[in-house]
């Protein structure tokens, strides 16, 4: 019965594990950054914005039931109608996407010291049966929100946290928002004005009260990064292999921003030497991300160094390097593997989360991972750990029972004596 129990508990934990894994693997929240730099007639920047959003639309079907659809993949995006504004009209961002969606935000100048994000409108076309199947045809529907966020002039508004705007039929989510209207002298400000949710580090109340959209407990949408295959060539063919999903975690002003690296928009370079190997990635946002591998004791390799540099929204550059790391240690001639999420901590402000990792920076033959048993991370070893823990727990229980029995016997023995 004990053995059965052990296996039952082990089996249950395995089912739970695969269930959790499938659930995690299935989570997919596409993140889609929109970016716009508007220039005035003199070709200097008047407005800058970069942000992510999605929409959930609730609609009525022909038989009076409710359905909903979430729009997060925008397809082709145009910004027609976005204007710098003039004396009569304020600046405006207008976005068209998908089939028949449009989104608009306009800004107003308040006195001489502040501007506000005045109103946001979102329109959709329920006549489109591919997006709104079975919808009762109501044509174009527009929802208008008035968030009234007030920002000092010549400062860029930043809100990495998730903001939600709710109306009867539409729930709008916004995150990773950076926007500055009324840009002065064509230079986007380096001074950030944080929304209250990003600004948890400072306890001093801002002089101008900002009204943020209703808070929610939902965390910033964050998907698992796509797994990329990163190869480095040398004159003799492929000399470094890396397969991994990369997620960067950058902490600035006590706010963490998480960036997933998209493999197919990332450039790969590198080099291989007998004692060191370099993998260098870059993209439109990442100036460079370098992984330097080294050989130790002539029989093992490891990740020794990470150099990272990224362009910030305000035009400055965030750089960090650490050449005293010790991760991904494995014998030369084999590869290092870790399927679970693992964190490479480069500094307090910069971490790399890796997923489905496999690397072989040395001794690559014919462009393939070595068939020698890969070194697996300890995190992947809990398949062995679970029965050990269960077993240890049960042995502990048996010992407790035995001790209790012995104590019980002693007591009754003592009892007999007094009698
Ligand atoms: C209403 O329509 C939906 C889908 O079109 C269908 O699943 C549901 O069964 C329908 N309800 C009734 C009462 O006909
Ligand atoms: C947006 O502008 C582009 C060219 O600037 C034009 O081809 C397109 O038709 C316009 N779209 C709309 C919806 O006006
Ligand atoms: C903002 O846009 C709305 C339409 O969405 C318009 O009615 C309003 O006049 C605009 N406000 C400003 C200040 O431009
Ligand atoms: C709404 O969608 C329908 C079907 O796709 C289309 O025929 C109609 O022209 C659209 N309406 C507008 C105002 O774009
Ligand atoms: C813009 O330029 C004017 C004159 O060149 C200068 O007085 C002003 O301080 C500048 N403003 C900013 C925000 O740099
Ligand atoms: C840009 O923003 C970052 C993060 O908020 C800040 O540390 C940096 O000092 C800013 N750059 C400049 C030039 O102000
Ligand atoms: C490396 O070589 C492979 C073929 O051997 C080629 O497909 C690939 O484009 C090369 N990559 C680089 C970065 O040169
Ligand atoms: C990012 O880093 C911060 C600070 O180190 C940490 O609190 C947070 O959990 C990290 N997020 C992820 C997704 O790794
Ligand atoms: C990048 O990959 C995604 C998903 O795999 C795909 O939808 C997209 O078209 C690709 N983009 C490019 C530029 O290849
Ligand atoms: C990577 O850097 C190279 C050289 O600096 C540049 O030409 C290339 O466009 C960059 N790649 C991406 C995807 O930005
Ligand atoms: C990484 O950065 C450090 C310091 O900035 C520099 O000395 C080193 O050469 C860089 N490593 C590589 C491989 O570029
Ligand atoms: C490198 O790291 C080790 C332990 O991780 C530490 O003992 C050592 O002092 C570090 N060296 C430098 C130069 O930071």
TrEMBL record:
Cell compartment(s), UniProt: Cell membrane; Cytoplasmic vesicle, Autophagosome membrane; Endosome membrane; Lysosome membrane
Positions with biased composition (Low complexity): 210-219
Highest taxon above the source species: Eukaryota
Chain positions covered by the region annotation Disordered: 205-226
GO molecular function: enzyme binding; ion channel inhibitor activity; protein domain specific binding; protein-macromolecule adaptor activity
Disulfide links within the chain: 159-195
UniProt KW keywords: Autophagy, Cell membrane, Cytoplasmic vesicle, Disulfide bond, Endosome, Glycoprotein, Lysosome, Membrane, Signal, Transmembrane, Transmembrane helix
Pfam families reported in the protein's UniProt record: Lamp2-like_luminal, Lamp2_2nd
Domain Lysosome-associated membrane glycoprotein 2-like transmembrane intervals: 386-417
Keyword Signal: yes
TM helices/strands, residue ranges: 384-407
Membrane-protein topology: Single-pass type I membrane protein
Biological processes per GO annotation: autophagosome maturation; cellular response to starvation; lysosomal lumen acidification; lysosomal lumen pH elevation; lysosomal protein catabolic process; muscle cell cellular homeostasis; positive regulation of ferroptosis; protein stabilization
Residue span, Lysosome-associated membrane glycoprotein 2-like luminal domain: 225-364
Keyword DNA damage: no
Recorded GO CC terms: autolysosome; autophagosome membrane; azurophil granule membrane; extracellular exosome; ficolin-1-rich granule membrane; late endosome membrane; phagocytic vesicle membrane; plasma membrane
CDD domains found in the cross-reference section: TM_EGFR-like (cd12087)
Known partners and oligomeric status: (Microbial infection) Interacts with mumps virus protein F; this interaction promotes protein F cleavage by FURIN.
Entry similarity comment: Belongs to the LAMP family.
Role noted for this protein: (Microbial infection) Supports the FURIN-mediated cleavage of mumps virus fusion protein F by interacting with both FURIN and the unprocessed form but not the processed form of the viral protein F.
Protein's name according to its UniProt entry: Lysosome-associated membrane glycoprotein 2
Native source organism of the sequence: Otolemur garnettii (Small-eared galago)
């Amino acid at each position: 019965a004990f053995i059965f129990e052990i296996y039952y508990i082990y089996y249950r934990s395995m089912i739970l594990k695969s269930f959790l894994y499938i659930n995690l693997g299935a989570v997919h929240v596409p993140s889609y950054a929109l970016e716009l730099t508007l220039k005035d007639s003199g070709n200097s920047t008047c407005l800058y914005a970069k942000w992510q959003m999605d929409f959930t639309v609730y609609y009525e079907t022909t038989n009076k039931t409710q359905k909903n659809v979430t729009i997060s993949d925008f397809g082709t995006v145009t910004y027609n109608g976005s204007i710098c504004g003039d004396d009569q009209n304020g600046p405006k961002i207008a976005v068209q996407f998908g089939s028949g969606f449009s989104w608009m935000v306009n800004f107003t100048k308040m006195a001489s010291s502040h501007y506000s994000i005045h109103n946001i409108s979102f329109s959709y076309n329920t006549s489109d049966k591919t997006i709104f199947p079975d919808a009762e045809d109501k044509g174009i529907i527009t929802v208008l929100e008035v968030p009234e966020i007030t920002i000092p002039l010549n400062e860029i508004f930043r809100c990495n946290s998730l903001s939600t705007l709710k109306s009867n039929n539409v729930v709008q989510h916004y995150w990773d928002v950076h926007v500055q209207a009324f840009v002065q002298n064509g230079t986007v400000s380096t001074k950030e004005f944080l929304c209250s949710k990003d600004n948890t580090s400072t306890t001093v109340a801002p002089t101008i009260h900002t009204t943020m959209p209703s808070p929610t407990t939902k965390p910033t949408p964050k998907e698992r990064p796509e797994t990329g295959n990163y190869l480095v060539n040398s004159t003799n063919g492929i000399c470094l292999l890396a397969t991994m999903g990369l997620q960067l975690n950058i902490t600035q002003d006590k706010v963490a921003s998480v960036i997933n690296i998209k493999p197919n928009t990332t450039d790969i370079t590198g080099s291989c030497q007998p004692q060191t190997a370099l993998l260098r990635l870059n993209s439109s946002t990442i100036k460079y991300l370098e992984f330097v591998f080294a050989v130790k004791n002539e029989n093992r390799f490891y990740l020794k160094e990470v150099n990272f540099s990224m362009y910030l929204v305000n035009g400055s550059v965030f750089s960090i390097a650490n050449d005293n790391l010790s991760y991904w240690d494995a014998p030369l001639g084999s590869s290092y593997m870790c399927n679970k999420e693992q964190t490479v901590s480069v500094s307090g402000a910069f971490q790399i989360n890796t997923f489905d990792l496999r690397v072989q920076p040395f001794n690559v033959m014919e462009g393939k991972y070595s068939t020698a048993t890969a070194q697996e991370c300890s995190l992947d070893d809990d398949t062995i750990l679970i029965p050990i823990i269960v077993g240890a727990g049960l042995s502990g229980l048996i010992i407790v029972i035995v001790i209790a029995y012995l104590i019980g016997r002693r007591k009754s023995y003592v009892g007999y004596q007094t009698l």
